[in-house]
Amino acid sequence: MSLRSRFSIAVTAGALAVSALAVPAAAADEWDGDPRGDSASHQNQNQTQNHNQGQNHNQRLYRGVVTASSLALRSAPNRGGQIIRYANRGEIVTVFCRTDGQNVQGNRQWYLLTDGTWAWGSARYIRDLGPSPRRC
């Protein structure tokens, strides 16, 4: 196995490890309850949501729509990554972050999606529904 292949595998494994560490943080952000029962905290959350109406509900997650007829979502930000599932045209997906990966028709950006499973999708086939996702 070449040094280049080993480096690529190591980088991909590191990216997946970092994204796995982020799972509890992202899951906690989606919870609407307050473990202390603090109504003031919940009220502040509602005010923030009302203020951001028309923007993404969660500042850490972004939304996009699939433009390809069938988009392979992969285990790594390249066409060699294992296919985890497919997303169909028009499907709304939740994007955690973006990174550079394999070039797909002139676009090197890949999005890490959080819809049920963590998977990478080429940004070439996902149109942002709001601000561009932050970098991973």
Tell me about this structure:
- By secondary structure, the chain is an alpha+beta fold.
- It contains 2 helices and 7 strands, in the order ααβββββββ.
- A hairpin with a 5-residue loop joins strand 5 and strand 6.
- About 31% of the residues have low confidence.
Report the CATH C-level class.
Answer: Mainly Beta
Query: Kindly state the mean pLDDT as a whole number?
Result: 73
Named CATH topology: SH3 type barrels
Number of domains: 1
Number of helices: 2
- What portion of the residues fall into strands of 2 or more residues? 25-35%
- Characterize the overall form: globular
The biggest beta sheet is recorded as:
5 strands, antiparallel
Rounded to the nearest angstrom, the radius of gyration is 17 Å
Structural class: alpha+beta
Between the first and last Cα atoms, what is the distance in angstroms? 28 Å
Give the SSE order as H and E letters.
Answer: HHEEEEEEE
Number of strands: 7
CATH architecture: Roll
Which residue ranges are poorly predicted, with pLDDT under 50 across at least 5 consecutive positions? Answer: 17-58
CATH evolutionary superfamily: SH3 Domains
Looking across the biggest beta sheet, what order are the strands in? Answer: 6-5-4-1-7
Can you give the helix content as a percent range?
Answer: 25-40%
Q: Oligomer, anyone?
A: single chain
